[in-house]
Structures are given as structure tokens and as C-alpha cells.
Design goal:
This protein is an alpha/beta fold and about 250 residues long. The protein has a single domain, classed as NAD(P)-binding Rossmann-like Domain (Rossmann fold, 3-Layer(aba) Sandwich). About 40% of the residues lie in helices and about 15% in strands. The protein is built from eight helices and seven strands. The protein has a seven-stranded parallel β-sheet, sandwiched between helices. Helix 4 links the parallel strand 4 and strand 5. Helix 1 packs parallel to helix 2. The chain is globular, with a radius of gyration of 17 Å. The termini are far apart.
Length: about 250
């Protein structure tokens, strides 16, 4: 009898780091739920790549800041893929480059809802399924933070840095809370990575223009971040929990 492949949910997986992680996970034997918010065609393309690598994949539309949508997403994964073994909390947003005194409350509320509440909601549902306390078989959660959490992103998006600082705190706390229940919780802090998220800040060319700020003198690639995520998900990191791994070229 064939052993079922472990099931992984990646939020925000239609592009960038999320898409690269889906491809890397498939190569390592994971079945993948590809979450997306708006771009169904891009998510379908990622799922097709996963299937081409011999793994099962479904696409699941859900705004992670919407609790009802998150509950429906996890319900579909339960029904169509089976027991969850891993979660990558990758979905997140930035906003236009600005100083604090140029920002408004609506911007912050949207940022917190997606970057913070969305990660907590998805982790909560993952814990309810993976924790031995709830009859689960254990699993692994990897949160996406940012080097901005350490640097503060002054003059760019302090609010984004604040949201990622919250993710660092969340990672430490949840790791301790569920360590004895078979769940490991870690985070990856990417630095300046060459993805299209920079367009949302109004600075599409930032990865190239900021290369001189990076000790390695180049922006990172999405697949380099994905490799760190996959290691943290894997049994090779079986004694690692509460860790935050910088993938920032030395920055």
C-alpha cells in the first residue's frame, strides 16, 4: 500500500516566493494546496507545475484576512487532499513607499489584517488539524517575516516592518506553545528578493538599485528563499523550532 504524500498549504502561492516554494515542495514529495487571492490563472499555472512534478495540487481562492474564507479553504484541503502536514504563511502585502506622517489608519488596518491576522488565522486552523492535542499527527509551520523587521524600513514602509516584527514574536510564542504537541514553528526573514512585490511599493527596480546595500552585492532569488523554507519544513530540521532564519545576503 502506497504511503500518502504529506500535504502542504502555501498562502499567496501564485507568484514570487510562494510559487517557488510550491515547486520546491513538489520536488521534495509534498502535495500542495496553492492559495491565491486574485490571480486564478497564475495559481492554476503553479498547480500545473506541481502536477507535472508528479504531485497532487489544488488551487484555493481565499483572502487570508477573511475568517470565513480561511475556514472554507481549510475545509476544501481536508476534503480534497487529506490531513495537513505543513503550512507556509507566505501571503502578505506592502504599500507605497511613505513616511509614517504620510500614512493613514486605513492603510495600517489593511496591513495588519493580511500580514498579521491572516497568518494567525491560518496557523490556528493548522494547529487544530496537526496538533496531537487535537488528534493530529504533528507538522510544521513556516512563517514569512522580513529583514525589515530588524531594520525598521525607515522612509519606506515602517508599517510593513512592524507587521513583520509581529510575525517574529508570533513565531517565538507559538513555537513554545505547541512544541510538545508535534508541531514545529519557524520563520524565514528574506532580505531584498527579486520578485514583483516591489511594484506595490512604487519601486519596481528596487532589487537592482539597492544591490549596493547588500554585502553579497546582489538581490536574492525566490528559489533561494524557498530552499530555506523547505529545509525548515523537512525532517532534516526535526530539532529546530522557534528559529528565525535570515536569507538576506548578509544584510
Amino acid at each position: 500500500m502506497a504511503i500518502a504524500a504529506p500535504v502542504l498549504l502555501i498562502t499567496g502561492a501564485s507568484r514570487g516566493i510562494g510559487a517557488a516554494t510550491a515547486r520546491a515542495a513538489a520536488r521534495r514529495g509534498w502535495d500542495v494546496a496553492v492559495n491565491y487571492s486574485r490571480d486564478a490563472a497564475a495559481a492554476d499555472s503553479v498547480a500545473a507545475e506541481v502536477r507535472a512534478l508528479g504531485r497532487r495540487a489544488i488551487t484555493v481562492a481565499a483572502d487570508v484576512a477573511d475568517e470565513a474564507a480561511v475556514l472554507a479553504m481549510f475545509g476544501r484541503i481536508d476534503a480534497e487532499l487529506g490531513p495537513l502536514a505543513g503550512l507556509v504563511n507566505n501571503a502578505g502585502i506592502v504599500d507605497l513607499k511613505a513616511r509614517l506622517d504620510q500614512m493613514d489608519l486605513a492603510r495600517w488596518q489593511r496591513m495588519w489584517a493580511i500580514n498579521i491576522s491572516g497568518s494567525l488565522l491560518c496557523a490556528r486552523e493548522a494547529v487544530r488539524r496537526m496538533s496531537t492535542r487535537h488528534g493530529g499527527a504533528g507538522g510544521s509551520i513556516v512563517n514569512l517575516s522580513s529583514v525589515a523587521a530588524r531594520l525598521g524600513a525607515p522612509g519606506m514602509y515602517i508599517d510593513y516592518a512592524v507587521s513583520k516584527g509581529a510575525i517574529d514574536t508570533f513565531t517565538h510564542g507559538l513555537a513554545q506553545e505547541v512544541a510538545a504537541e508535534g508541531i514545529r514553528v519557524n520563520a524565514v526573514r528574506p532580505g531584498i528578493i527579486d520578485t514583483d512585490i516591489h511594484a506595490a511599493s512604487g519601486d519596481r527596480n528596487r532589487p537592482q538599485s539597492a544591490a549596493g546595500l547588500i554585502p553579497m552585492q546582489r538581490p536574492g532569488r525566490a528559489d533561494e528563499v524557498a530552499a530555506a523554507i523547505i529545509w525548515l519544513l523537512s525532517a532534516e530540521a526535526s530539532y529546530t523550532t522557534g528559529a528565525i532564519l535570515d536569507v538576506g545576503g548578509g544584510r
